[in-house]
Amino acid sequence: MSEVLARYDLDRVTIATLASHSSLQIFHGAKLEGFKTVAIVPRDRLWFYEQFRHLIDHFVVLNNWRELCNPEVVGRLHSLNAVLVPHGSYVEYVGLDCAEGIEVPIFGLRRLFRVEGDQWAKMDLLRRAGIPIPRLFSVGDDVDGPVIVKLPGAKGGRGYFIARSGEEVVRGVEERVREGLVKTPKDAIVQEYLIGVPIYIHYFHSPVLGRVEILGADIRYETNIDGLRRLTPDVIVELGLKPTFVVVGNIPLVLRESLLPKVLDYGIKFTEETRRALPPGIIGPFSLEGVIDDEANIRIFEFSGRIVAGTNLYVYGSPYSYLYWSEPMSMGRRIAREVRMAIEKDSLERVVT
């Protein structure tokens, strides 16, 4: 990206992202930090994002997401001196090859996209970092308790299911192969189903300041697993209902302060492992997702190397971000603040890949 950045007018850098997921927060935060913004939007969504013209300075309109890497689109982004901010929909929408190979500066670690698309590689990274994880099984293994079967990619929990035996796992995965949710059974991962409170922790690694920040936490609200809590077990059995895990929203969470040292330690360990395995390491937002049990143990079953949708709860900032900045600081604004500080220090190359 050094050649691309050399052609940029750093006084006219814009913040660009796909119009989806957490884009409104990203645009809002960029405007607060004095940047112009670029919405990359498919034609059928343009009408909605035009309602937020006060947050969006430029529209790059696509017929479909896969056009992002077309030379004309890339050239347009170059002309706007755009820094592209990936979010949870990025790889799922444009495909891994485009997401990873686009010749536009990306705020974050593009080398992590390929790891995120492989459930086994993700868990191996967490293990190498020294972060506690659940027990893992392959499809076809015997299991001795409830497990959750997960599919690769950012599907918002779609297709995940709980099983109690190896046979249930095999049947469920074969059904999802037929539905086209997964290519082959080996792409699925089977994890011990953890009992406790699920938590989704929002972090930010700042290369400019040389620190890892805790910027928030949330709980996901999922259908129909959360709706089933309103029914008695006999009704669930009678109706033959099975839990699903499609995310529909997020609920704010403030953790006990006594948990924060462990939470921050995990974030630092994750940052250090990505620096060792995937230099220069994680840049900006990431999330560790896990379960806290009744003995305050935290095991991490998932991570995201980008901004997560749970940060949309905190457009005006979270209790944690206020402790660092003493002003409203959403994750979207924190991204823009890092870009601005890097430009001021003539070191934009430290925060893009």
Distance between the termini: 6 Å
Order of helices and strands: HEHEHEHEHHHHEEEHEEEHEHEEHH
- What's the number of helices? 13
The secondary-structure class comes to alpha+beta
* Tally of strands: 13
User: If you compute it from the alpha carbons, what radius of gyration comes out, rounded to the nearest whole angstrom?
Assistant: 21 Å
The fraction of residues in strands falls at 15-25%
Shape: globular
Largest sheet entry: 5 strands, antiparallel
Describe this entry's structure for a reader:
There is one protein chain. The protein is of the alpha+beta class and 353 residues long. Helices cover 32% and strands 23% of the residues. The protein has helices spanning 2-6, 23-32, 46-49, 71-79, 90-94, 96-101, 112-116, 119-128, 166-178, 233-239, 260-277, 319-325, 331-344; strands at 14-18, 36-42, 58-62, 82-84, 136-137, 147-150, 161-163, 189-192, 197-206, 211-224, 245-252, 284-292, 298-304. Strands 11-10-9-12-13 form a 5-stranded antiparallel beta sheet. Helix 2 (23-32) links the parallel strand 1 and strand 2 (36-42). The protein starts with a helix and ends in a 9-residue tail after the last helix. 40% of the residues are buried.
